[in-house]
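Blackboard transcription, Thursday session:
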Amino acid sequence: MSDDPVLFMDVRIAIEAFELTVEHELPLTGVTALFGHSGSGKTTLLRVFAGLERGAKGRVAFNGEVWQKTSPDPFFLPPEQRAVGYVFQDARLFPHLTVAGNLAFAEQRASGRGHPIKRDAVVARFGLEPLLARNPTTLSGGERQRVAIARALVTRPRLLLMDEPLSALDARRRAEILPYIARLPAEFGVPVIYVTHAVDEVAYLADSMIVLSEGRKVADGPVAETLARLDLGPATGRFEAGVVLEASVARHDKAFRLTELALGHAALFVPLIDAPAGTAVRLRVRARDVALAIRRPEEISSRNILEGRILEIVEEPETAFAETLLDVDGGRIRARVTRQAVSDLQLTVGAKVFAVIKSISLAGGVSTLVAAADGDV
Amino acid sequence: MPELGPVLLTLALASITTLLLLIIGTPLAWWLAYTRSRFKPVIEAVTALPLVLPPTVLGFYLLVLFSPNASLGSFWVTVTGTTLAFSFTGLVLASIVYSLPFMVQPLQTAFEAVGREPLEAAATLGASPRDAFFTVAAPMATRGFITASVLTFAHTIGEFGVVLMVGGNIPGRTKVISIAIYEHVETLNYAEAHTLSAGLLIFSFAVLLAIYALNRRAPLHVG
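(Written on the board underneath:)
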């Protein structure tokens, strides 16, 4: 869409020994992940967008509206005039007000510049009705974050900034709240910038991503493409590294409780999911869950074997491993194998291989999130 | 029946001092709680001085400052036609200096406990700094305000040395309870001294008890 807002940044900020320098023009559609390890500067950058870092130098502009600049004429638009919502890692609900009071605080100060979000719609969407009279200090972590997201929405923000809102929650609570966040742009008409260090959250939520490492932007682009890049190495994580694939539900096998997914012309099997045929699903396949074979393995328990060609091999001389990128029908897959295997199997760029996928997780697109399959298919 | 003059005068002095210190002390405590200025320790030390200085030292310098020969004293005479020394206004000024740490320190602690976080949250919700002070920081620091006000009020009631130096002993103008007690003892009027002393003792105990009881309770909630 051409009328999507654009966030322009050319910022430098030094906090003690740490220095962040990022120049980027970010089209705001759906959810953009700001991804990096702790200390990469992602939270600092988000705070710059919100106007919470007055020491930031350079320029930030939203759709041509300058939010701050240090030259030629220094200008700083304070956070309360940016019409931006912010969800903090620690929720930061006001303890002297009830949940309803917290929402009213935000509603009374709503900018009116964003999508006309109704308080009642937000309360209903986040199931806050039973919590309205409660004091925030009596809420659970998950409830607190739901209220914090709702509170940010009723200010009618033009942009919603979220700083690892789920990091303090256990896997179950995270899985409960993730679908709410994924649907915010479509449901409430607000683009989201989401800070996280969790690849599974990126895979589930985001359409595009920016990867930060040590205060620098090292990559940006659509999630599927960026996660498939091998050159980012540690920036996208080794243990959690993997790709995102777009597939669709083909049919269900009720007897074996499996669902067959179509990826290009290939078939993949996952434990039965609750979605009609044709539903688009997003899959996440971790590099360490993929093994490679020269010939199609037979008499093997793994159901998911894809034929492909090697596009890239990056050996890590300091470890036992090599990262490989494969072109398969319908997408790209990363496989993390030993360097010894690369040598023994004589794997080279262009070689035909079979990828044996030991585990697939559904990353989004279906109403019930299966965080991870209980067994590998 | 004890003489009511000194009692009423003392209550008036303590009330006015507390009110004025709320107005002066709040921004000062706010600044001390949130500033990153390197002058913060200097200002903190100056604010705490009245805690450690003998009241006579403080009173002496204030008296010097109030003298019609000094700049402040002569300015006051020019503007109002009266002197600051040995006047009720002079007592109020002296009490403000004397009780300053009792207002500023509890408030500073309360603001530091509130922290920057809720204020940042308020800003992202569209609240200006002034709005955030009145609707977030002040309500969250309610107990700090109560503690500071009560301590300031009680401390002003109990002052003696500064009053003696700056105010003297003029009935209806500067003769507060502590001075009255001193005078009763000097004239061997022990019965009157007892009445006033016991009153002050009970009052002080009640105030401290109220504060400690308040501090034991769960944080205040409103709204």
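Lecturer's comment: Chain B has a mean pLDDT of 86.
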